[in-house]
Amino acid sequence: MKKQQILLLLHVLFFLFMVALAAAAATDDDPQPLQVVMQVQQQQHSRWRMMVNTRSLLQAPPKIDCPSTCLVRCCNNWNNQMCNKMCNVCCSRCSCVPPGTGQDTRHLCPCYDTMVNPHTGKLKCP
After folding, report:
1. What span, in angstroms and rounded, lies between the C-alpha atoms of 14 and 44?
2. pLDDT, tens digit (0-9, with 9 covering 90-100), for 36-65
3. Bridge partner list, 123
4. Is residue 18 part of a domain?
5. Is 88 a residue whose pLDDT tops 90?
6. How many domains does the chain have?
7. Long-range CB contact pairs, 79-83, < 8 A, 24+
8. Distance of alpha carbon 123 from the chain centroid
9. Is residue 49 part of a domain?
10. Which domain holds residue 104?
């Protein structure tokens, strides 16, 4: 009896081993769990990059057309030539010119708003 039980047990273990081997072979075509996790992370990263502005804080701001923008800003100024000259200097450094012609919009371009003349200490940008 004991021999028959051992043989039966060996047959059952062999059968289970073969079933496990067949199951492992069937899943080889499927991506491994680590690969699936990496694919999901890459998809989430690409979605995140689409949602976030791609411009870094270290990159220079985009260039604007300074002459035409300053021409609009200085159109009502009593000293048009000086205004255009200083506005273009400020625009080339800041890549920003406040909209409109008045002083009430200066705060929209912080660089433009805070630039001062080193000799006089007065605001440099019109």
Report:
1. 44
2. 545 555 555 555 444 445 555 566 666 789
3. 116
4. no
5. yes
6. 1
7. 82/126, 83/126
8. 34
9. no
10. 66-114
